[in-house]
Amino acid sequence: MFLPWLPSDKCWFIVASITIILAVKLKGYFIVVAMFALSFVWSTATAKHYLSSIEPYIDQTLAVTAKVEGINTQISSQFQTDPINPHYVKFSIISITDQPLLSPISVAIYWDQPELIKAGQIWQLTIKTKAVHSYLNEGGFDNQRFAIANKSILKAKVSKAVLLTDKTDLRQIIVDKCLFYIDLFSYRDILLALGFGDRSQMEMHHRIIMMQTGVAHLMAISGMHILLVFSISYILTKGLVFCLPQRFNYFLLPIIIGWLVSLSYTWLTGFNPPALRAILALSMWIYLRYKNNQISAWQKINRIIALLLIVDPLMILSESFWMSCYAVVSLIFLFEWLPLASTLKNKKRWYFIRLLHLQFGLTLLLLPIQLFIFHGISVVALLTNLIAIPIVSLITFPAILLALLFSLMDCFYLALGLWFVAQTSLEWLFYCLEYLNILWLNIPADFYLFSGIGWITIIIIRIEFWRRFSFTIVIVITMLFSPIYKQPDYLWRVDMLDVGHGLAIVVHNGKSAILYDIGAKWEDSSAAEQVIIPFLQWHNLNVEGIIISHSHNDHIGGLSYLRQHYPDAWLMSSSSSLSNDYNCLADHKFDWQHLRFNVLWPNKLVSDPNNGDSCVIQITDGQFSVLLTGDLERKQEYDLVVKYKRNLHSTILQTPHHGSTTSSSYPFLNYVNPSNALTSTSRYNPWKLPSNKITNRYKALNINYYVTGKEGQISLFFYTSSWQQKTMRQDINPRWYHDWFGSLSFYE
Known about the structure:
By secondary structure, the chain is of the alpha/beta class. The chain has 25 helices and 22 strands. It has an eight-stranded mixed sheet with strand order 13-12-11-10-9-8-21-22. A seven-stranded mixed sheet has the order 14-15-16-17-18-19-20. It has a five-stranded mixed barrel with strand order 1-2-3-5-4. Helix 4 (170-182) packs across helix 14 (381-408), helix 7 (223-243) crosses helix 14 (381-408) and helix 9 packs across helix 10. The longest helix is centred in the middle third of the chain and has 28 residues, at 381-408.
């Protein structure tokens, strides 16, 4: 998880050799050291093997034969009237240029063809491949780590498709039968997620509601759902066996049937990683119970986690893996260290108290992992889970399982009735969630240490730590609250965020911030929602002002979303059609904190500012300065040179117009004469920015050139007499899974 790079082949062979020698020759505690080394060798070898099998095919145009692995859940074929929306589909590449592969390669292909694609079909495709390339920012979602954890780093787009075999597999046949019913209901996205483990259709509104109320874990196939399938099958089989003659009453039969049904359900979900982990854990648990090993719960979970990581070491990069394991460990810890249920004489009578004890304890203990994954907590999670867990586990999920069965048996009215029961239960649930979704707290990174208060409290209560070590407790609590008094070591800071093709810059002093541009708005989201606000919340920054350079989407897209979150922030732009608090006009100056903001361009407001009307601002502390140029073009650069000459000199330059040939003229660069130039653009942008001509120009002038698409977030720290630059990929969070995958150079 924390290696900045994978060991070289030479280093790997040396470690492997030493490990084998230690394991064979030594005994005692040295065996433990050898086993740790062996696990390191095994995990890094698995990572290197996966990357080496994929990298030769990244950024290539390939003619492949591929089998469809992902099920079609877009729409039932009976109701298909409109064209299929473009979407990613999981394929397995069988051969490349008619050369069969030793093992299939998984690839997510963007399917924009008119044909309805189904699992099991075999296609002859011409594809242009690329690597999953994440926006890398503090507080943001790490898509590269997610892709490697799920072994889905290869993506592609189709340029030509020919169907070779139109044969759908059994999973797709089952889905088609069920889609006929599911498409009738408004909560089809949840029904698909619980029925087939397919969350691709999940509506954003439902995702947000579930996350902010703390019940998102119930809608993703995990250990709880596999255990429910096992339990229902076990109970039904137990009842059936009870009615049979005694010679058929084999005590292991319910367990075997339960395991087989659970395995079948895991197969139906496509063996997605959480479900696969759950069935492996269940299998290990059944084996340990069958062997009647007298081992503790801690030893069992230790063996189960070890088995999972031996099968797939890359699983350790998965957030859902950590969430599942952490939840089980928390349960064991809670019932061993604070066993409230065992102190109650009549357990049935005190069922609600026991449930409250369980949920409250888990809420406290799960705080660290919840903050790590979601960067916040739901204040109502305790109440919503008390409502949601019984509804989903006792009504929704069993109804879906039975509906699947009767849909396959073509029992129309029974199947329709059960799908209706599942739909109605979800309506009740989301009605409660909407009503209770009143407060979600975003927690800054500095306060994550405080999330351990639940574990510390239980340990102190159980071992009566306060009797002899009260002063130690005071010190520990003081340490937990220490982030409140933490002061940044820099005077001010500028962060160019990695927002793809667009621009978003945060100027702040560790407490308050001013934004310069806010990235693009996409079809179902925006850079403001996915990148900027998570970054601001990560650093606990309050936005006092927003400056918009011009009105193109990649600079202004998320304005409405940001203003909803920060309604008191003032707005400055060169647009006469926006409700500006301040107009961006040349020669206007204002002070913020200890910084001076000098507006250099434009000379007049326009209703719809274009590139040449960009709001150009120079920020200075009297010693160091940053020049923000938006999408300024060559003509305006000449005008600035004529007007300001040497006053344009700045320590840092935000490269005009994303490194396009329309900007960065020689006279302008000579007068600005920056130490570093920062460019904001994406790796796979259709304009192939930054231009080779422009990057060569910066190199010829000995100006250090950095691009967010390659470096991720670029951060500048300004001190009393010095400044420092750090990049996300190389300095802030260097990880082997953040490498530049593929052969294509950024500047090609």
